[in-house]
Design goal:
The protein is of the alpha/beta class and 514 residues long. The protein has three domains: 227 residues, no CATH class; 101 residues, no CATH class; 108 residues, Phosphohistidine domain (Glucose Oxidase, domain 1), CATH 3.50.30.10. The protein is 52% helix and 9% strand. The strands form three sheets. An eight-stranded mixed sheet has the order 5-12-11-7-8-9-10-6, covered by helices on one side. It has a two-stranded antiparallel sheet with strand order 1-4. Strands 2-3 form a two-stranded antiparallel ribbon. A hairpin with a 4-residue loop joins β11 and β12. It is globular and about 70 Å long. This is PEP-utilizing enzyme. It comes from Paenibacillus aurantius. One of its GO terms (molecular function) is transferase activity, transferring phosphorus-containing groups.
């Protein structure tokens, strides 16, 4: 479970994040308890002290009497297709979100602003509750499907094989990014701008000039549709969305347009999302199973694919909901800074949700607000060590071999680039091996240019595994120590079949990581 927590929360939550993080984790815990496993409250798994320093305390999972009924639920789980989301909830939730986003936050009194923010969080909790009540059955269905695939003689099948060629939210967004990249490739001024300056500064330059009119219009339309996507999206208040920091998208595009024209021919087929590998996989398994099992496999596979679309849709809707809450929190921070309670609006992150509400409602002494913000700000540098440091393995890996989970099959050789965040995306070159602490949907367009992916966290169900499978590149995930042990410039062999990375030629650069 530690790996799962670090994958979803790769940075330590700030005090303001804490309630929303534990509420989200508790929705997962409730679904797990329904399946017959004992889970402590989320506030015991992720704890936070008075200095705002969080720590992880993974539980020991143990079965309860409910697990006896799990076998009886398997037929229901294999029928779950996520249809309840689209038929009964999606339209209503999106209408509520549109209503929240129409509110002029600067016109709300303090108590009304607090209520508005809580309404957004309540909506996120409702979405997450529905999401995980459907996603966990989907995961069990996936395990059964992979078992049937193995029984049919298809070896090494992974979750990514089950959703190949499927049109879901991350695929939709990645296609839109590829269309933007195609526009960049056709406009010399914009391409030169991306190549000539740090990507974070390009957006401000483009906004002030006439260059790249088509690109500007497409870019703004892209942000209007998908701008609430955010790295580290499960951290509701400390995450930063693409709309709030467009430089992150420009950094992605700078990496995507580096290949030569011949290497980037795939842009002309940007909308061709082939399902041929999936069809071969499906038919190979189905043709080897006896009649009843074949029919069960095909029905359950279609349900799994439909449920995966629901999983992706609800993830992005949750991102939109958190963005609405985040904007309200920043408005509160702006007011607190104007009143002298903190030096800048972002320091609102050092208040807990309850404290922020109390301050907005005039129930928390201003001097107490200043003291808590100052104390937690000074303590924050210790948060990373507490959150991750005690969970890392410090010793070197043996014989230059690093082990992890097989996320996507195949082998690839390349040069290591250790990337810590969006600011480093533009440093990637075609054929590099992407080494990172975590990946999320915002990283997956990079899979177009890298030869392999290696990460500290993640597993076969992660976005990295599923999208790497789609792009046909090997992925080794959940290594825990890749970013600590692999160095920029190392020449490595990534073996996605065995979940192994071998250093073939080590390099010790004078500088640090990208």
């Amino acid at each position: 479970m530690l790996n799962d927590i670090l994958e979803h929360y790769p940075e330590p939550p700030f005090p303001l994040d804490y309630s929303a993080v534990t509420d989200g984790l508790e929705t997962i815990n409730r679904a797990i308890r329904e399946m017959g496993l004992a889970m402590p409250p989320a506030t015991e798994i992720i704890r936070m002290d008075e200095d705002g320093l969080p720590s992880i305390h993974p539980p020991n999972l143990r079965p309860t009497r409910k697990i006896i009924s799990l076998l009886g639920k398997l037929p229901k789980y294999m029928r779950e297709d996520g249809g309840e989301w689209k038929s009964a909830h999606a339209q209503e939730v999106n209408a509520q979100l549109d209503g929240l986003n129409r509110v002029r936050l600067d016109r709300l009194e303090g108590p009304a602003l607090a209520n508005h923010l809580q309404e957004a969080l309540d909506l996120a909790n409702a979405i997450n509750g529905l999401r995980f009540s459907l996603v966990l059955p989907m995961i069990i269905n996936g395990k059964i499907l992979l078992f049937l695939a193995k029984k049919s003689g298809v070896k090494n099948a992974l979750e990514g094989d089950l959703v190949g060629g499927l049109e879901y939210k991350t695929v939709e967004i990645n296609k839109a990014l590829k269309r933007l990249a195609r526009t960049v490739m056709s406009d010399g001024e914009v391409r030169d701008a991306l190549a000539g300056w740090p990507a974070k500064e390009v957006w401000n330059t483009i906004k002030r000039t006439d260059k790249g009119r088509e690109f500007r219009n497409e870019f703004l339309h892209f942000l209007e549709r998908y701008g609430d996507r955010a790295p580290k999206a499960k951290l509701p208040f400390s995450a930063v969305s693409w709309s709030d920091e467009p430089g992150m998208v420009l950094s992605l595009l700078a990496a995507m347009v580096q290949p030569s024209e011949s290497e980037y021919a795939s842009l002309s087929q940007v909308d061709n999302h082939s399902d041929s590998p999936f069809l071969r996989f499906r038919d190979q398994v189905a043709n080897r199973l006896p009649g009843p099992l074949c029919r069960l496999f095909l029905r359950s596979l279609e349900n799994y694919r439909s449920a995966h679309i629901m999983r992706e849709d609800t993830l992005y809707v949750t991102e939109r909901t958190y963005a609405a809450a985040r904007h309200a929190a920043l408005e509160a921070g702006r007011r607190f800074a104007a009143e002298g309670l903190m030096t800048e609006q972002g320091q609102v992150l050092f208040l807990t949700l309850r404290e922020m509400y109390a301050a907005l409602q005039g129930r928390l002494d201003p001097e107490e607000v200043r003291k808590r913000v100052d104390r937690r700000k000074k303590a924050r540098p210790r948060a990373e060590v507490i959150w991750r440091g005690e969970n890392l393995i410090s010793e070197s890996f043996a014989d230059d071999i690093l082990s992890g989970q097989a996320g996507s099959p195949g082998q690839a050789r390349g040069t290591v680039k250790v990337i810590s965040g969006p600011e480093g995306f533009s440093n990637l070159k075609p054929g590099d091996v992407l080494v990172c602490r975590f990946t999320d949907p915002t990283w997956t367009p990079l899979f177009e240019i890298v030869s392999a992916v290696v990460s500290d966290t993640g597993g076969s169900l992660s976005h990295a595994a599923i999208v790497a499978r789609e792009y046909g590149i090997p992925a080794v995930l959940g290594t825990r120590i890749a970013t600590k042990q692999l160095r920029v410039g190392d020449k490595v062999l990534v073996d996605g079949d065995r979940g192994m990375v071998r250093v073939e030629k080590a390099w010790y650069p004078e500088s640090g990581k990208d």
